[in-house]
């Protein structure tokens, strides 16, 4: 399907043909949900830790007499019911990562791109670069595009453009290799450069040498 290509000043500079097998799918919520859960699981550090009774200090001497105290026959101050005792079944350092087949990850990315196009939330621009790396200048350009919350994807991120955009709330810039479902769905607009479209084709066709990392 044909889509207009805009400049950062919201002027039309041509058009681009987007492939139906990547941008024309009927979005499936179940596939998108599987990807986002996988990505969020992999983001967790898993470094939470509570000390158990074998890791705290406390006497193991019987501190009350066997009978006549009216209480239980305690013999260890490190038991969970005592103040300063170990935590029973507390969190341990572990990995929360789960597996998701590469084919499903690629399919989910296609459905995310299709969802943005079907919702009229996809903008294709000729290039993501500015003559002067100033946040104010870039904010004005995004205002013309109607993009207050946007993810910009380029084949190779321009350093000046990225510096100008990093102080804008709701605006994120990623290279093609970093494109992921969560960030695409988490922004109101998705802005792709011409080079990014070609890069996504290469990545989703399996000709790109690298694969995305859940982040």
Structure write-up:
This protein has 215 residues and is α/β, with parallel strands linked by helices. It folds into 2 domains: 2-44 and 97-204, 3-Layer(aba) Sandwich (Ribosomal Protein L4, Chain: A), CATH 3.40.1370.10; 46-95, no CATH class. The protein has 7 helices and 6 strands; from the N terminus they run ββαααβαβαβαβα. It has helices spanning 20-23, 29-43, 102-118, 135-145, 159-165, 181-185, 194-204; strands at 2-6, 12-17, 122-125, 150-154, 171-175, 189-193. A 6-stranded mixed sheet has the order 2-1-3-6-4-5. The longest helix has 17 residues, at 102-118. It is elongated, with a radius of gyration of 26 Å.
What is the topological layout?
Blueprint: E1 2-6, E2 12-17, H1 20-23, H2 29-43, H3 102-118, E3 122-125, H4 135-145, E4 150-154, H5 159-165, E5 171-175, H6 181-185, E6 189-193, H7 194-204
Parallel strand pairs: 1-3, 3-6, 4-5, 4-6
Antiparallel strand pairs: 1-2
Helix pairs in contact: 2-3, 4-5
Percentage of residues in strands: 5-15%
Helical proportion? 25-40%
Shape: elongated
Rg, rounded, reads 26 Å
H/E element string? Answer: EEHHHEHEHEHEH
Integer tally of domains: 2
Order of strands, main sheet, comes to 2-1-3-6-4-5
CATH T-level fold name of the largest domain: Ribosomal Protein L4, Chain: A
Alpha-beta content class? alpha/beta
Short description:
Keywords: Ribonucleoprotein, Ribosomal protein, RNA-binding, rRNA-binding. This protein is α/β, with parallel strands linked by helices and 215 residues long.
């Amino acid at each position: 399907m044909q889509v207009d290509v805009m400049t950062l000043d919201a002027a039309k500079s041509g058009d681009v043909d987007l492939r139906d097998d990547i941008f024309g799918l009927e979005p499936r919520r179940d596939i998108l949900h599987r990807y986002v859960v996988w990505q969020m699981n992999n983001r967790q550090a898993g470094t939470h830790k509570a000390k158990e009774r074998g890791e705290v200090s406390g006497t193991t001497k019987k501190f009350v007499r066997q009978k006549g105290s009216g209480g239980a026959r305690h013999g260890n101050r490190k038991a969970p019911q005592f103040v300063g005792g170990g935590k029973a079944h507390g969190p341990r350092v572990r990995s929360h990562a789960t597996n998701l087949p590469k084919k499903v990850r690629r399919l989910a990315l296609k459905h995310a791109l299709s969802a943005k196009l079907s919702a009229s939330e996809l903008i294709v621009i000729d290039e993501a670069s500015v003559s002067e790396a100033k946040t104010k200048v870039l904010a004005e350009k995004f205002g013309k595009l109607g993009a207050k919350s946007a993810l910009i994807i380029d084949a190779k991120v321009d350093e000046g453009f990225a510096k100008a955009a990093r102080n804008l709330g709701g605006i994120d810039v990623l290279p093609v290799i970093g494109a992921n479902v969560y960030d695409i769905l988490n922004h109101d607009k998705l802005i792709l450069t011409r080079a990014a479209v070609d890069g996504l084709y290469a990545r989703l066709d399996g000709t790109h040498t690298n694969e995305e990392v859940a982040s």
